[in-house]
Task: inverse folding
């Protein structure tokens, strides 16, 4: 039976202070409908075990080191600004942007290198941008020549030209669940931004009800591309649909600022798309971002972590650097900040989808591999407290965070201090979850005996001198 709840906004605690990301952050609605398909329910349960995933925004825009797609959008926002050296007028800019197809040649592309580093760091699923809002396909679509496999693109002659195929096959071989990001709006398509009219904002630039044949053509184009992705690229576990302004008009939430810009009906027929995707990929999770209902199987706060636990499946997508797209000399987060963010997310019941953007040469910055290696050292010791865990009250108290094993026999307690460098204290005190009477207590990474004592409804742990070896956070595991 489908569970229907009144749509409302959950206010988020933003972990980044940048005004760019604050502007781009998506509100998360609570009009969630639990999937009825048992294969989808099973896939969601497995996905909730994974906790840590890799997101990758990659396209021709990496050559300019600019925000993904958004500079094409004629909105006066910080993230849509155009650099004058790329065009003195809007039309010249668009022309030069589209010419990036003719110089895109990421010859260092090696998805095995990415998969190896991500796997060691504990990442267990990948979501890749098969097509962003600019319409450039990073897969071999037959619907358009604006694609990486076109003869106009230098990389098309490379044996690995269909990068979506290479990424999916490589990561799948390494045991990852596979997610295909796809933008519903397409700013390159003449059936979305009709050349008869100038684009006004992110939305379709004509009234689909006034020009139904044109809109129907765009719907068919979108359906065909998603059919290609879900038919031709092996097993896909997640279809991650972005561009939530392409939605039925009646689903608009007027309390959300960006949704108030939607002035016309943009129903893409998600029932038809979703039914096709499930026929091609039984059990696939579909994420129609910000459009509450049967096709938003989990919700996706962006650059943000919910302040409290959510009763529905969710995932925070957060960048390792400051940007989703490749920017030279990006400000990459420290390994400690990444671990702290992971702990906060899993203690509130979510997954952490961390974005890493490949550069125009087809590789990550060297510092990315350093971060992933540092994370892998921590994960090797503490993975049993992270993966296949679930929430448990009190969830979070001060600098203490909790998870539990799915069988309820193990409680995991994380101690953070959020200083620039973590130093484990000599003593840690924390509340004991209700009805849990621990028989043993261990600290991964410390082989010596740990002294602890139950005092009423709390636990006092004295850490040995070798606690100085603990990095990023202390993990305490209690067994019944």
Result:
């Amino acid at each position: 039976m489908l569970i229907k709840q009144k749509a409302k906004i959950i206010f988020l605690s933003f972990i980044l202070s940048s005004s760019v990301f604050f502007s781009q952050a998506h509100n998360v609605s609570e009009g969630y409908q639990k999937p009825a398909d048992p294969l989808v329910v099973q896939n969601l349960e497995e996905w909730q075990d994974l906790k840590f995933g890799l997101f990758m925004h990659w396209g021709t825009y990496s050559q300019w080191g600019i925000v993904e797609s958004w500079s094409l959008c004629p909105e006066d926002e910080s993230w849509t600004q155009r650099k004058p050296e790329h065009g003195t007028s809007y039309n010249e800019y668009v022309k030069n942007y589209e010419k990036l197809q003719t110089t895109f040649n990421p010859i260092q592309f090696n998805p095995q290198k990415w998969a190896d580093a991500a796997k060691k760091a504990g990442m267990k699923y990948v979501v890749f941008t098969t097509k962003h809002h600019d319409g450039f396909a990073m897969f071999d679509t037959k619907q358009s020549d604006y694609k990486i496999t076109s003869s106009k693109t230098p990389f098309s002659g490379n044996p690995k030209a269909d990068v979506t195929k290479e990424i999916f096959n490589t990561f799948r071989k390494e045991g990852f669940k596979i997610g295909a990001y796809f933008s519903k709006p397409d700013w390159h398509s003449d059936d979305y931004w009709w050349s008869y009219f100038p684009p006004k904002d992110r939305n379709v630039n004509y009234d689909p009800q006034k020009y139904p044949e044109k809109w129907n053509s765009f719907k068919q184009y979108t359906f065909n591309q998603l059919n290609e992705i879900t038919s031709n690229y092996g097993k896909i576990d997640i279809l991650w649909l972005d561009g939530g302004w392409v939605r039925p008009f009646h689903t608009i939430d007027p309390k959300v600022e960006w949704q108030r810009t939607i002035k016309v009906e943009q129903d893409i027929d998600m029932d038809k798309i979703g039914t096709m995707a499930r026929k091609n990929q039984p059990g696939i999770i579909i994420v129609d971002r910000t459009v509450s209902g049967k096709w938003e199987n989990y919700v996706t706060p962006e650059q943000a972590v919910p302040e409290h636990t959510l009763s529905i499946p969710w995932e925070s997508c957060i960048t390792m650097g400051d940007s989703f797209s490749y920017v030279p000399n990006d400000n990459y987060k420290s390994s400690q900040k990444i671990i702290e963010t992971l702990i906060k997310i899993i203690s509130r019941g979510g997954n952490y989808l961390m974005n890493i953007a490949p550069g125009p040469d087809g590789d990550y910055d060297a510092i990315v591999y350093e971060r992933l290696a540092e994370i892998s050292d921590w994960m090797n010791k503490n993975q049993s407290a992270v993966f296949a865990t679930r929430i448990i009250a009190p969830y979070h108290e001060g600098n203490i965070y909790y998870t539990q094993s799915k069988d309820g026999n193990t409680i995991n307690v994380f101690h953070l201090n959020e200083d620039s460098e973590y130093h484990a204290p000599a003593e840690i005190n924390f509340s004991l979850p209700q009805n849990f009477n621990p028989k043993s207590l261990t600290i991964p990474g410390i082989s010596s005996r740990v002294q602890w004592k139950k005092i009423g409804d709390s636990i006092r742990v004295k850490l040995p001198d070798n606690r100085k070896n603990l990095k990023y956070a202390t993990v305490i595991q209690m067994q019944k």
Confidence is low (pLDDT under 50) at residues 1-26. The first strand starts at residue 9 and ends at 10. The longest helix spans residues 212-232.
